[in-house]
Amino acid sequence: MLLFDKPEYLARVARVKKSMAQRGIDLLLVASPANQFWLTGYDGWSFYTPQIVAVSQQHDEPIWIGRKMDSVGAKFTAFLAETNVVPYPDEYVGSSDLHPMQFVAEELQRRKWDRGAIGVETDDYYYTAKWDSTLKKHLPNGKFVDAFLLVNGCRMVKSERELEFMRQAGRIAAAAHQAAFDAAAPGVRQCDVMAEVYRVTTAGLPDFGGTFPCKPPNAMVGEYCSAPHLSWTDAPLIKNDLFYIELGGVRHRYHSPLSRCIYLGKPTERMEFVANVIAEGLNAVLEKVRPGVVCEELAASWRAVISRYGIEKDSRIGYPVGIGYPPTWGELTASLRAGDRTELEPNMTFHCIPAIWMEQYGLVISETFAVTERGAECFASFPRVLLSKG
User: Fold this and answer.
1) What span, in angstroms and rounded, lies between the C-alpha atoms of 108 and 102?
2) Residue 144's beta-bridge partner residues?
3) Which one-letter DSSP state was computed for residue 230?
4) Which residue of 84, 226, 263, 384 could cross-link 80, Cys pair, CB 3.0 to 4.6 Å?
5) What is the C-alpha separation between 252 and 34, in angstroms, rounded?
6) What is the DSSP track for 27-92?
7) Contact present, 245 and 197 (Cβ < 8 Å)
8) What's the CA gap between 283 and 277, in Å, rounded?
9) 3-state secondary structure of 159
10) Cα torsion for 169, 351, 343, 9, to the nearest 10°?
11) Model confidence, pTM
């Protein structure tokens, strides 16, 4: 079940170790499931219990430490040698007396990896205060340092095989939006439209399948479209409803987000105007994409367009994407906004989502793209318009 060959995984490990060395880190403890997947290939719905990937400068491969029953999944998905998969007994799960990080600390001590600088992902969703206090208590000889986003940064430049998965995910995303458009009609429940989205994102296309996304689509109707992160209901759609959908196509955990709006009727002149401005601004951003350009330059291209039309937007217009585990498909490393000097490199991938949220509704047209020497390569092919159906 390995998605990549062993040399690619070892190259990723080497990239991380180089970054560790630059920061003076001897041991890195990786809590993020997305980072664990990228480093080792391990892929299981097991991250609701503590698990860690440890990268030591003293050892060629990382080690995975997790629940015993989930170590079987490592055999099928991780490139690691059997000796580098370390299970802890089930007595550590849901215990008030024991914690898996105690086991982790004992394993690190056994390997004599408990000294020097120990990097931890302090602001990761999965690295809890309990993890931190337990590790520090049981590893008193180590010096804990913040290594949040160290691996995320190493993930930003994709390999050709990663890009292929994202291209496939983009095709799935476009098909899912087409399914939503086909299903949306007055009298159809919002949830039934979204069921068609889930059908397509799960089934994929005839030549390759999809899988579950790391988070549900943001899908709002009517005045709820003025809030960016709400969900659908079971209410039936009615004539002149606006349906805002941000979804992601997924292929082997690689996400290609794509956003569009559907209007059930003839959109107002103002809606058409704002949608056209969004599309023009998005096109300006995509035309600016080249290696060496910095993120804030893309944001400036967008701002130059909307300012001509008297439109303002005070939030970022995009972020790097790739591997997605709950709760996000974002890589958390950079933002398309003023002040971000992250330099674009070939094979970086971004979701540009220049949505405009107003008092009564919101509109969005987005694209996921890769940076190439020739410009932006978009992963989906779908009209960049406010879709109307009436």
Assistant:
1) 10
2) 118
3) -
4) 84
5) 12
6) EEEE--HHHHHHHH----S-TTS--EEEEETT-SS-EEEEEHHHHHHHHHH----GGGEEEE-GGG
7) yes
8) 10
9) coil
10) -30
11) 0.96
Question: What does the pLDDT profile of the chain (390 residues) look like in tens digits?
Answer: 799 999 999 999 999 999 999 999 999 999 999 999 999 999 999 999 999 999 999 999 999 999 999 999 999 999 999 999 999 999 999 999 999 999 999 999 999 999 999 999 999 999 999 999 999 999 999 999 999 999 999 999 999 999 999 999 999 999 999 999 999 999 999 999 999 999 999 999 999 999 999 999 999 999 999 999 999 999 999 999 999 999 999 999 999 999 999 999 999 999 999 999 999 999 999 999 999 999 999 999 999 999 999 999 999 999 999 999 999 999 999 999 999 999 999 999 999 999 999 999 999 999 999 999 999 999 999 999 999 997
Q: Which amino acid is at 109?
A: Q
C-alpha angle 366-367-372 in degrees, rounded to nearest 5: 150
Q: Answer for the pair 301, 336: CB distance below 8 angstroms, yes or no.
A: no
